[in-house]
């Protein structure tokens, strides 16, 4: 049976033979795929071939009901427009840099008279210096670390407010006190230059300068300052230990390796700055299953660098991919960039190092997949529970009742999909009623459209909470979704298919996974509840 929309096929034949971007839409007028082409007519017509086996193309054939396109003047314009539209619409069949909003940058506001170091999620051309992207937990640690060595201001006032007395940060030696005139403007800007040097991966230069300053302070009998510089030196040396030299020359290189896994695919990035390995990043992009790993890598690279100002001189990849030269030219508008597929030498060594790191991740991932497979068998599910959502209710004697929802994909938390709920319809302690409310709100209201639907729902509680969740799912029109509950004391699993709860071995991989998901939902709910209690205390 053919799923190809014949009217759409005819429209594809009438497209111009020009470069541009095309958008497939479904029956709800939602964009499901964005692509680019040197020749729109030829490229789009290729989607309507019969006997297609690639799951992504079959999915597009089945769901595409409308087609739109934008003609561009050149291929470079085409590349950046494609990336912009993918970020805007987040289409189902494109590779999506998962949790794009979750990866923040460090911004040093050099356009301000007295610069600040802050976390932002958007890179702008405003005269500031940007570093990243980082993972959320890493960026906060980095800010604390940098400010320990370079005590620039913590206050957010713009412009800097003059004060009569310095704040606590000054007395704790965490700020030089520009607001009370304790530091000159030139000295303050010198601190900022040090931050730029440090975050650019050139920590050795900072170490040398700090040693010189410490020796000078000691010779001038400024022992308190010398002691402070000594502490900074120790911090910097710890950073330097982590930044091992992997190249004999001071080069800037990013190394990308990727591989497919049962629950998706993973990309690992090694960042080398000035010949030193300074960071490792792991991404699990959202992608509809496809055999085209090369195309997935191309889309990932385009999104990764579309908003990054930290372009290296060389980008090392495992294999060649279509339109590598076009992407290279597009990125080189900011800085000359070269893609390298190494066969020997230092770059091959870096690639092998990245692949070794990826193998370690794959081993851990293998355990996650093992627990998901075991859980699928235990619960007699038709498919792997790739996405699990869990709910927990928290209250203190019925007051400030709240609930949480957490989401796991492939055994890993997806924190950007976590949600908090304030119970609206109940007064007094009623966990069962609260479960009904939040499950209904999640799967019947706007959240049902904003977030992916789960393969498995886990409720923290017993049979009462499970039945409440089931009733809410039926009311929301989601009765086909598998739902279970996990009781804390005996760690029993309640299902709707049996009146007898399941008891798994304590060392069972599937039980450990459920416990991890349940405990995370509990932690998230407790944290939210404490915050509300403290607010009204």
What is the structure about, briefly put?
The protein is α+β, with helices and mostly antiparallel strands and 537 residues long. The protein has helices at 6-13, 40-45, 55-63, 75-89, 136-149, 168-171, 185-199, 203-219, 223-242, 293-306, 324-331, 345-378, 431-444, 447-450, 463-476, 509-536; strands at 20-25, 31-37, 66-71, 105-108, 117-120, 129-131, 253-261, 264-273, 276-283, 314-317, 338-340, 387-396, 399-409, 412-413, 419-422, 456-460, 482-486, 493-494.
What does this structure look like?
This protein is of the alpha+beta class and 537 residues long. The protein has four domains: 6-92, GIY-YIG endonuclease (3-Layer(aba) Sandwich); 102-200, no CATH class; 253-365, Ribonuclease H-like superfamily/Ribonuclease H (Nucleotidyltransferase, domain 5); 387-536, 2-Layer Sandwich (Nucleotidyltransferase, domain 5), CATH 3.30.420. Helices cover 42% and strands 19% of the residues. It is built from 16 helices and 18 strands. The protein has helices at residues 6-13, 40-45, 55-63, 75-89, 136-149, 168-171, 185-199, 203-219, 223-242, 293-306, 324-331, 345-378, 431-444, 447-450, 463-476, 509-536; strands spanning 20-25, 31-37, 66-71, 105-108, 117-120, 129-131, 253-261, 264-273, 276-283, 314-317, 338-340, 387-396, 399-409, 412-413, 419-422, 456-460, 482-486, 493-494. The strands form four sheets. Strands 12, 13, 14, 15, 16, 17 and 18 form a seven-stranded mixed β-sheet that branches. A five-stranded mixed β-sheet has the order 9-8-7-10-11, sandwiched between helices. Strand 12 (387-396) and strand 13 form a beta hairpin. Helix 8 (203-219) packs antiparallel against helix 9. The mean pLDDT is 83.
